[in-house]
Amino acid sequence: MKPLTVDECGRRLWHGLIPAVPVPMTSSGQIDSAAQEKYIAYLRQQPIAGVALWAHTGRGLHLSRDQRVQVLKDWVEGLGADKLIIAGVGGPHAGAASFQAYVDSALEMADDALRHGANAFLAYAPSPLRKIAGEGELEKLVLDYHQQLAALHEPVILFYLYEAAGGISYSRELLRRLFALPEVVGIKLATLDSVMTYQSVANLIAEEYPEKLLITGEDRFLGYSLMAGGQAALIGMGAACTELQYNMMDAYFGGHAVEFLDLSGAVDRLSQVLFIPPMEGYIRRMLWTLVHLGVIGRESTHDPWGPELPESEFENIGRTLAAIGELDSSNSAKD
After folding, report:
1. Which stretch of DSSP H or E encloses residue 158?
2. Is 188 helix (H, G, I), strand (E, B) or coil?
3. DSSP labels for 286-304?
4. Kind and range of the H or E element at 36?
5. Whole-angstrom distance, CA of residue 234 vs CA of residue 249
6. What pLDDT shows up at residue 331?
7. Average pLDDT over residues 165-182
8. pTM for the structure as a whole
9. Taken in order 90, 94, 100, 105, is the CA torsion positive or negative?
10. For a FRET experiment, which of 11, 65, 99, 163 has its CA 20 to 30 Å from that of 133?
11. Contact at 8 Å (CB) between 13 and 184?
12. H helices of 151-238, where?
């Protein structure tokens, strides 16, 4: 599968929903291939522009290289050529001994992604570089990292994860230099609890780089993030209840205000049981949501890198799904 040009990638992302998908895993930490096949079949029927693999939701920096390739091959084979496949690329989760070791890891992921069918890259926010950088050189290293990825001449989506969420705060000048890279399609913003940061970057794009896509990653204020300039969504929450979120986006972009407000209320209610402390638990909560929807079984919802969660959260997710009309309360999963 030949990767798309930057312009083609942007056109296919425009007003689209791109779920960042989790990986169904067993209690032994192995990928549950049968559950993944069912999950791919589920998303194949949803109104999505594509999927993001190897992102945080998919534990891309934790999976082994062989596991990542297996996941990508499964999605390429099962999703269909009309859908985008975006692959997260970055350095080791635990950090790296040097800047170049970090970049080499990202380039290895990028090479694997291209060789096995991905269309574009989502560049992880290079948070480990904060430990490597000397005084005053962090932004230089961040720029160099992105330049080396861009040198592959394939579409790149920037990922701005605000410091409060564990990322790096990019200055306006750094953003300008990143947006100047011709391979950059746009930027995924995931500020979590900083609406002001989202607004600031959105205004910069609108005023100076209207050709670049603002891709919201704001699960907790998804509706407002569209109102504030989002032109597409790449979100973990989109991994389940996908049509609900697509319909909300479609209502907004179609100018159907009453429908948008109604659907936005339902989406917000869902986000408030999925994206809560401990935040790393959201990946298991997304898998639990798929259990309630009948997509996968409970035995496929292990997250080796996430926290243990109380059973009450599983039950609360089921009640919320029933309350917003995503399933009949009598059919909510019990185990």
Report:
1. strand 156-161
2. strand
3. HHHHHHHTTSS-GGGB--T
4. helix 33-44
5. 12
6. 52
7. 93
8. 0.94
9. negative
10. 65
11. no
12. 172-179, 195-208, 222-227
What's the rounded Cα separation, in Å, for the pair 302 and 315?
17
Give the burial class of 195: count Cβ atoms within 10 A of its Cβ; 0-12 exposed, 13-18 middle, 19 or more buried: middle
**In this structure, what DSSP letter does residue 75 have?**
H
Q: Give the number of C-alpha atoms closer than 13 A to the C-alpha of residue 163, restricted to the C-beta side.
A: 6
The mean pLDDT value of the chain amounts to: 94
Q: Which residue has the tokens 């030949």?
A: 2
Smallest Cα–Cα separation from 25: which of 50, 62, 76? 62
Query: Once rounded to an integer, what is the mean pLDDT over residues 281-301?
Result: 98
Q: Which amino acid is residue 296, in one-letter code? A: I
What pLDDT sits at residue 42? 97
Q: Is the pLDDT at 189 greater than 80, yes or no?
A: yes
State which H helix or E strand residue 269 sits in.
helix 257-274
E strand or H helix at 332: none
Cβ atoms within 10 Å, residue 322: 16
Task: Please give the backbone phi and psi of residue 169, each rounded to the nearest 5 degrees, phi first.
Answer: -80, 110
Q: What is the β-pairing status of strands 50-53 and 120-123?
A: unpaired
Integer Cα distance of 187 and 124 in angstroms: 11
Q: Report residue 204 as tokens.
A: 């910069």
Contact 31, 67 (CB under 8 A): yes
- C-alpha angle 159/160/163, rounded to 5°? 135
Residues near 53 by Cβ (< 8 Å), separated by ≥ 6? 21, 60, 68, 71, 72, 75, 85, 86, 87, 88, 118
Which residues, other chains included, contact 255 with Cβ-Cβ below 8 Å and sequence gap of 6+?
A: none
Tell me which DSSP letter residue 229 carries.
T
Rounded Cα–Cα distance for residues 62 and 270 (Å): 27
CA atoms within 13 A on the CB side of 266: 22
User: Mean pLDDT throughout 7-18?
Assistant: 97
